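One chain is below:
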Amino acid sequence: MAGRTGEVGFTLVEMLVALAILGIALVALLNAVGENVRAAGSIRQSLLAGIVAENRMVETIAIPDGQQAGTDSDEADLAGQKWVWRREILPTLDPTMQRIEITVMPQGQETPAARLTAFRAKP
């Protein structure tokens, strides 16, 4: 018996092609969402590390007593996370100035999440 005329609908092949296209689109969408989540985490980490660096820099500039050229480091807690910071006070070509570099990284990592540099008159 031949197919009825006037039937409306999709064939099985058309449905499989539509599902394949939908599947590819969903994979691309999920990949984009995953990238956005990773980027948000990275931005959060950079922001918090920057806050730690700024806090150390303010301490260094506001309380200069006893801070000669050299390197020191310690840990800080911020937003429920431990951060390791390193402060380097370096001489400059101008004998009346010092260069201060603060580097901050999440505890257990070696890659800096923030770096801040400032100059000040020698105390």
Observations:
- The helical segments are 12-62.
